[in-house]
Specification:
Blueprint (H helix, E strand, L loop, with lengths): L1 E3 L13 E2 L7 E7 L5 E7 L2 E7 L2 E8 L4 H11 L9 E7 L4 E6 L6 H4 L3 E3 L7 E3 L17 E2 H12 L4 H5 L3 E7 L4 E7 L2 H15 L6 E5 L5 H9 L4 E4 L5 H10 L2 E7 L2 E6 L4 E2 L2 H25 L3
Parallel strand pairs: 2-7, 5-8, 11-18, 14-15, 15-16
Antiparallel strand pairs: 1-13, 3-4, 5-6, 7-8, 9-10, 12-13, 12-14, 16-17
Helix pairs in contact: 1-5, 5-6, 6-7
Length: 310
């Protein structure tokens, strides 16, 4: 699923390549048999290959849900640093009859063989990959040092994602990523079979709309691996949140680029593992939240006690 807040900021009319509109069905019905031998219809996430052809050259095959294939392709090219400017792309055309997307550029990609020769297969579902040269660019990434995020906004973001209508709620087995403003306004929510695809799709949407990442917050349901941190940093985003944990390399890269990494985000709980200087703690807000929770719990117990009277 790819959803967008209609109030998402835009810089006005911008160049846009010629894009197909080829979003595919997100779930597929199958027949399942439960432990009692009863048959039922089960909806599972769709998964389909999408082979990227860059100027008629086969580049990579992405396994995807198919929710936003054009944005996914653009974000992949952007995050791999294969195409530097949106203006360099003439068209992105997806054809599901052959499970392929054709990208046409204005002048080709210089040194494509050398730039794609070294590939690193990354951790996680869907087996993402990055071209090795990306690691060489980490030292040149500078995230805004004055960006700040309030503790109450972290809680609001986690609750917003928790209540979001999603393929995961219907069928499970997918990862979601979301982009928020620093005040907690949801801009995009994208799901895919791999978290790397979902982050690439959001990168593509940001590219198309000309949205800067300096005052944004990125949320993912997946682990905070080095790939996720590098891509978030390349998008210029100083805050990366996850309901899951982080890896050693993800943590090391976050500290290197100065990213604030918040793991194990659930309810009002989180573990800030890097970039502590950017988070604005709000102890009074947290105390009020805890007091409200205790009052609700006490009220529920009183109601239950009255209901249990003979």
């Amino acid at each position: 699923m790819a959803s967008m807040n209609p109030s998402a900021p835009s810089t006005g009319p911008r160049y846009r390549p010629l894009l197909s509109q080829a979003s595919a069905g997100l779930t597929h019905p199958v027949t399942a048999v439960d432990e009692h031998g009863r048959r039922e219809t089960l909806h599972i996430p769709a998964e389909r290959p999408l082979t990227v052809y860059l100027d008629r050259r086969e580049l990579v095959t992405l396994m995807t849900l198919g929710a936003a294939p054009e944005a996914l392709t653009l974000g992949y090219l952007r995050n791999q640093r294969l195409v530097r400017a949106l203006d360099d792309i003439v068209s992105v055309q997806v054809d599901w009859s052959v499970d392929a997307v054709a990208v046409v550029t204005r002048a080709g990609v210089a040194d494509l063989d050398a730039r794609t020769a070294r590939r690193v297969v990354t951790t996680g579902c869907g087996q993402g990959s990055v071209f090795g040269g990306l690691m060489d660019e980490v030292d040149r990434i500078a995230l805004p040092p004055d960006a700040r995020l309030r503790q109450s906004v972290v809680h609001h973001i986690v609750e917003t994602v928790r209540t979001q209508q999603s393929v995961y709620r219907q069928a499970g087995s997918v990862h979601g990523c979301a982009l928020f403003t620093h005040d907690g306004e949801l801009l995009w929510f994208v799901e895919d079979v791999g978290r790397h695809n979902a982050v690439d799709a959001i990168a593509g949407l940001m590219w198309l709309e000309g949205i800067d990442g300096a005052d944004k917050v990125f949320y993912t349901t997946g682990r905070l691996t080095s790939e996720m941190v590098i891509k978030g940093a390349q998008m210029g985003i100083p805050f990366l949140l996850s309901r899951s944990g982080t890896t050693q390399m993800g943590h090391a890269v976050a500290r290197q680029v100065g990213m604030s990494l918040l793991a194990r985000c659930s309810g009002h709980h989180f573990l800030l593992v890097s970039g502590e200087e950017r988070l604005v703690f709000e102890p009074d807000w947290l105390d009020a939240l805890e007091a409200s929770r205790r009052l609700r719990t006490a009220a529920s117990r009183i109601d239950a006690a009255f209901d249990a009277r003979p």
